[in-house]
Design brief:
heterodimer, A: 422 residues, alpha+beta, five-stranded mixed beta sheet, B: 154 residues, mainly alpha, 0% strand, flat
Chain lengths: 422, 154
């Protein structure tokens, strides 16, 4: 091994690589990644997968779903908006830090000989799981929020199971490396590093893990500069994405699919699933439309839109918050779902199965929990911002559920079946 | 114990325990996906993501950086290197993250989902890239003027 291939430690020239720099990136990820894990697991729980059907996109999860012992919350109404906004925005912002961390340990990948002991061989396998899973999660997440489904598998399946591999590999990595990280962070002073110019930047003393180059080049950037670049990249990505979830900032999300304006009319807000996509005859939403209600004991009712408008109308400011991390807050007007339940003896129903005029489609029929039926802010909305819903937003009627993922707010509702048991 | 550490395994027993925990969860995940017809594709994207970064994108970035070496600072010459590196890296990062819309890869789906096209994204990315380079050039110009007005170090 005398040639300057990647297996030769002398061919890695950066004077910045070393346990201290790696540990700074590691410490930042140690804060950020657990937030990703928690918000990710909560997002899965927010579908109430125990209800089955479309609510459960990974029906074979077994023990991996056993942490969900609770029904999803109905307040505060911005809960899912916050959870998913954080999950997606933080995920985007962490990309530069993940890549910086991988850059800082790159020589280890090509280390020769690749295996020195059983322990090292097993650890390398766990690192493949760690790196493979985190990149998989970032790639599928970033593609999913841009509607690029090139993988040929369900986003939910891939992202959920890879997340569990990541959780396991991340936990093992932290357990193995935490002492090294703490020791390395203590080996240099952050304030001193932030005062060190490029000209004064020299390599860290050689370390047992061989991160430090034995053949360092002259520094072209200081550690301060490298940290600023990684942190600045994170903030740039964040600044260019945050508008997708805050209505007044929307135009600043220049590259996000959800940074676009539809206009300034009452129905001009973000659409997910257009009326054109579902391919139903517009006359089905006209005067012949009826809402069918079925109660747990066989009671039923058929309501016209005028009948609904004659009921007690309630208005609520509620967000639509998508799993993709964007959200929009609008003022919805409609009938409380619990009043519709009472019409057919479903006051104490355990769940309601909501069906759309849309046929097929992964989420055209979904269930809500008893808690969501009884939440005072859960509406069958007929109007938004003072006018009738547009066809794209679910005319003649759509569900709006506080704190729930956007996809549960079924549009073009046709039938509500209240059930005594889930 | 010492034999385990020095001969049999190569690390302390808890090292093995932590890794076995990781592998147990992974094995369970695989068992849950075993009959899923898309398992192979998931594994392919999983391994592919690591391979593409470690063996393709990472080395390409390092290689590109080598070509910029002549731009380094020298005695009596303020280097352009970081003034090219920083905007190039930021622009590249934005491209990698937002490639699906910049390349209009998902326009058909996006039209059905959101009723919108993806026409503006390439132009916006180019404009941001141009802005980053202009900004960086401006900072370089300021530094250049400052370094000339300062007496040269003897």
């Amino acid at each position: 091994m005398t040639a300057l291939g990647p297996s030769n430690p002398r061919s890695w020239r950066s004077p910045l690589r070393g346990p201290w720099l790696t540990s700074v990136f590691g410490a930042a990820l140690l804060v950020g990644l657990p937030v990703m894990i928690v918000t990710g697991l909560l997002s899965y729980a927010a579908y109430d997968p125990a209800l089955g059907g479309s609510n459960d996109q990974t029906p074979n999860a077994g023990l991996l779903a056993s942490y969900i012992w609770f029904e999803w919350f109905t307040s505060p109404s911005w809960l899912y908006r916050l959870n998913q906004g954080v999950h997606v925005l933080l995920g985007i912002a962490l990309i530069p830090l993940v890549l910086a961390k991988l850059w800082s340990v790159a020589p280890k990948l090509f280390e020769w000989p690749p295996i020195r002991s059983v322990a090292q061989a097993l650890e390398r396998i766990s690192l493949l799981l760690l790196v493979g899973s985190i990149l998989f999660l970032l790639v599928t997440g970033v593609m999913n929020i841009q509607y690029d489904y090139a993988w040929g598998f369900s986003f939910y399946t891939g992202h959920f199971y890879a997340a569990w591999v990541f959780i396991a590999a991340f936990a093992a990595h932290v357990a193995l490396k935490l002492p090294t990280m703490i020791r390395s962070l203590r080996s240099r002073s952050l304030t001193d590093e932030l005062r060190t110019s490029t000209a004064d930047t020299v390599a860290e003393p050689s370390d047992p893990d061989h991160l430090v180059s034995p053949n360092p080049d002259e520094a072209t950037v200081s550690r301060r500069g490298a940290l600023a670049l990684a942190g600045g990249s994170s903030l740039t990505l964040l600044a260019l994405s945050i508008g997708q979830t805050i209505d007044p900032l929307r135009p600043t999300a220049l590259l996000s699919p959800r940074g676009r304006s539809y206009g300034d009319g009452p129905n001009d807000f973000q659409i997910n699933v257009t009326f054109a996509e579902i391919g139903i005859d517009p006359t089905q939403t006209g005067s012949s439309w009826r809402l069918l209600l079925e109660g747990p004991d066989g009671q039923s009712a058929v309501l016209r839109r005028e009948d609904l408008l004659a009921m007690a109308m309630v208005s609520e400011e509620l967000p639509i918050a998508c799993v993709e991390g964007w959200s929009t807050v609008q003022r919805w007007t409609g009938v409380r779902l619990r009043e519709l339940a009472e019409l057919v003896g479903g006051r104490d129903a355990e769940s309601v199965f909501v069906e759309s005029l849309q046929r097929g489609g992964a989420f055209s029929a979904m269930s809500l929990t008893g808690k969501q039926i009884r939440a005072p802010k859960t509406l069958l909305a007929l109007k938004v911002n003072g006018v009738d819903l547009s066809l794209d937003h679910g005319f003649p009627a759509r569900m709006i559920i506080p704190a729930a993922p956007g996809v549960r707010n079924t549009k073009w509702v046709e039938k509500l079946t209240f059930r005594a048991q889930t | 114990m010492n034999t385990f550490r020095s001969r049999l395994y190569g690390a302390a027993p808890w090292h093995l325990v932590a890794l076995l925990g990781c592998f147990a969860v992974t094995a369970y995940v695989l068992s849950r996906l075993w009959e899923n017809p898309t398992l192979l594709r998931i594994v392919l994207w999983f391994v592919g993501a690591a391979v593409v970064w470690d063996l393709v994108l990472g080395p390409l970035i390092a290689l590109a950086d080598r070509f910029l070496r002549p731009l380094r600072s020298r005695p009596r010459r303020l280097g352009l290197l970081n003034h090219v590196r920083v905007p190039a890296l930021l622009s590249g990062l934005l491209f990698v993250v937002w490639a699906p819309v910049i390349l209009q890869r998902s326009e058909f789906t996006f039209r059905l989902k959101a009723g919108l096209d993806q026409d503006p994204y390439l132009d916006r990315w180019l404009a941001i890239t141009a802005g980053l380079f202009v900004l960086s050039a401006g900072v370089y110009a300021i530094r250049l003027v400052r370094s000339r007005s300062r007496p040269a170090p003897s």
